[in-house]
Amino acid sequence: MALLQIAEPGESAAPHQHKLAVGIDLGTTNSLVATVRSGLAVVLNDELGRPLLPSVVHYEADGRNEVGYEAQARQALDPRNTIGSVKRFMGRGLHDITHRESMPYEFESSAEAPGMVRLRTAGGVKSPVEVSADILRTLRLRAEVALGGQLVGAVITVPAYFDDAQRQATKDAAKLAGIPVLRLINEPTAAAIAYGLDNAAEGVYAVYDLGGGTFDISVLNLSKGVFEVLSTGGDSALGGDDFDQRIFCWILEAAKLLPLSVEDARLLLTRAREAKEYLTYHGVAPVTTRLNSGEVVDLELTTETFGEISQTLVAKTLQPVKKALRDAGLTVFDVKGVVMVGGATRMPQVQHAVGEFFKQDPLNNLDPDKVVALGAAMQANLLAGNRAPGDDWLLLDVIPLSLGLETMGGLVEKIIPRNSTIPAARAQEFTTFRDGQTALAVHVVQGERELVSDCRSLARFELRGIPPMVAGAARIRVTFQIDADGLLSVAAREQTSGVEASVTVKPSYGLSDDEIAGMLKDSLAHTKDDAFRRALKEAQVEAQRLIDAVQSAIKSDGELLSAEQRTRVEAAIIKLQTAALSESRRHLTLAMDDLEAETKDFAARRMDKSIRRALAGKSIHQLEAAGNPSQTQVSKGEAE
Ligand code: ADP
Ligand code: MG
Predict the structure, then answer these.
(1) What's the CA-to-centroid distance between 28 and ligand 2, angstroms?
(2) pLDDT of 480-498, one tens digit each?
(3) Which of 346, 365, 384 is the last residue of a domain?
(4) 100-114, 391-405, 442-456, range with the lowest pLDDT
(5) Residues of the chain with pLDDT > 90: what percent?
(6) 338 and which of 55, 169, 318, 362 could share a cystine (Cβ 3.0–4.6 Å)?
(7) Would 405 be classed as within a structural domain?
(8) Do the beta carbons of residue 542 and residue 596 sit within 8 Å?
(9) 214 lines ligand 1 (CB under 6 A)
(10) Which of 25-34, 98-107, 506-515, 594-603 is the most confident on average?
(11) How would you list the strands of the sheet with 82-84, edge to edge?
């Protein structure tokens, strides 16, 4: 069981019609697009067979632009008009961007969206959304060429810590690129899905993502196929680039190369990155190049030296890891698995340090720079409706069926109506039915019908420890909350005493689309029928409440009735009990009227008695504690 559902009503995929859906990892350094082919997630390469698209866009004065490797090649020559790492600016204002002066860009605040950052380029003023859209458009074209058709939609990944503005900006970029967004999902969740952890044992997983310029750690909890982000952390200025920088410095020192022109510095940085990547697979990396200055560099970098000069960087990643665990209230021993994400986690010293820290071998058999895109593709495939038979994944955008509570008489009180978009939260107050009731059975149900017996039971729990009060006096606030992953939690809280109880449920657990469609059809066919039955049930509940109240009044103040009166009242109770069993609402109403008429006098006498008691110096509180029905809603039926 994992996440997934889709299909707006009437939009469900025709059988055997495969919809073209992709997953996109819109990365700070590199972006990728992947899809599911014959049940297997694969990254789609460019026409030269390269899987990665560097997240770099170069803008020219004639309005054209280049994206990817071509743009990257221009970075050194035309830095101002070559935008890289634009993800850092998404949904951000000018004041959010630190170290602006160290960047080669010309920033400006936008007039329409004051505070939102924009970049002045030869090709015009560009917002980060537009730059991202240019990257996404390139990926869309790549996918459409590879798949031979138009995309139905894409799942795009974002860092778990992305806020609303950053997520919205990402969605806007997709829209601008002509990509329908099936859903944004968190990068660590996508990576976990790629590893199939959503089908794994429940538990806590850590996702360690060391990319080009950023480090992210996420702690996820998997429960019933749904990942919940417990905590996130990281360092937005720590990544593979910093390792390049260390090697660069080592080269400068070893070859005594100062001063250096900007072009030569760029060149050496590229050599440094190549050496770093080479060392992942070899013990020694050659660093040889002829600089523009004419000087020749001819060095060898060993794994040992690289390990030494990068040791503090590796250690630096572990600080946010510790903090994220602490924030989640966990220790390394609670972590079931560690997923390695990001090209920089290929470095053996990183693998080693992470394994040592978590005291287990990290999961690394998938390509760390592809894993996010692969997981996103798997999600997209499911969201687009390309489901294999027997796949009962359910990931909700809207809740397909109403969620509610059982109330007296086996009736359903809907709290969150169907098709509410998630996340959603609603609360409603309920009260007790009987005097002195100290516990409340909360029964969470799903469905459109009026009666509990026609809906699906999701969960039951009890709220205990309600202070004894007369019926209807307790104020129990029940809150329904569905998070973005479709996870429902229901909490009940008695307002005066503060006692609480709660339960977490996955709302559509095990319900197939067909079942959902069937339940909806059913509810439409029964609307009238249901309305009648609801009214009948309500009358039955009302009748029982009246009977209870009268019986409890007789118990406490029976001496106020003559023997004859008592017999008549008891006869009226029996008549009402019989009527309550019939299906006739008219009989029921008549019998209730009778009982109320028979007890009218009795109620008045009890009222007098309670006033006398009150005047004798007792507090209202004591009266209520004594369960005097004249103070409760029950008295309504008796006195009127
Ligand atoms: P992002 O998520 O920021 O877009 P990626 O996951 O694509 O970044 O990671 C890019 C980083 O991974 C770069 O610093 C790159 O040098 C590094 N990297 C890629 N392959 C290797 C390798 N074989 N060894 C070491 N680092 C690598
Ligand atoms: Mg990444």
Answers:
(1) 7
(2) 988 765 667 889 998 888 8
(3) 365
(4) 391-405
(5) 43
(6) 362
(7) yes
(8) no
(9) yes
(10) 25-34
(11) 65-67, 56-59, 82-84
Tell me how far the alpha carbon of residue 29 lies from the centroid of ligand 2, in angstroms.
Answer: 7
CA dihedral 257, 258, 259, 262 (to 10 degrees): 50
From the list 46, 66, 87, 172, the catalytic residue is 87
Under DSSP, is residue 486 helix (H, G, I), strand (E, B) or coil?
A: coil
CB 219 within 8 A of CB 230: yes
Distance of CA 65 to the CA centre of its chain: 36
Rg from Cα positions in the chain? 34
Task: Give residue 417's pLDDT.
Answer: 82
Residue nearest to atom 8 of ligand 1 (CA): 211
- 187 catalytic residue (yes or no): yes
Residue 630 is assigned to a structural domain of this protein: no
Strand, helix or coil for residue 414: strand
Which tokens sit at 194? 């790629």
Residue 632 lies in a domain: no
Beta-carbon contacts of residue 74 (< 8 Å; ≥ 6 apart): 58, 66, 81, 82
Domain interval for residue 569: 537-615
CA distance 2 to 496: 40
With a 6 A CB cut-off, is 369 part of the ligand 1 pocket? Answer: yes
The label of the residue with tokens 């400068």 reads 252
| Cβ–Cβ < 8 Å for 44, 146 | yes
Residues 503-520 have pLDDT tens digits of: 776 544 344 556 656 666
Average pLDDT in the 243-263 region?
90
The Cα 214–Cα 326 span in angstroms is 21
Distance CA 640, CA 633 (A): 12
Of 232-236, 315-319, 470-474, 588-592, highest mean pLDDT: 315-319
Dig out the tokens for 48 from the structure: 């030269």
Distance of alpha carbon 603 from alpha carbon 231, whole angstroms = 60
Verify that 74 and 146 share a domain, yes or no: yes
**What is the structure's pLDDT at 525?**
72
Residue 582: inside a domain = yes
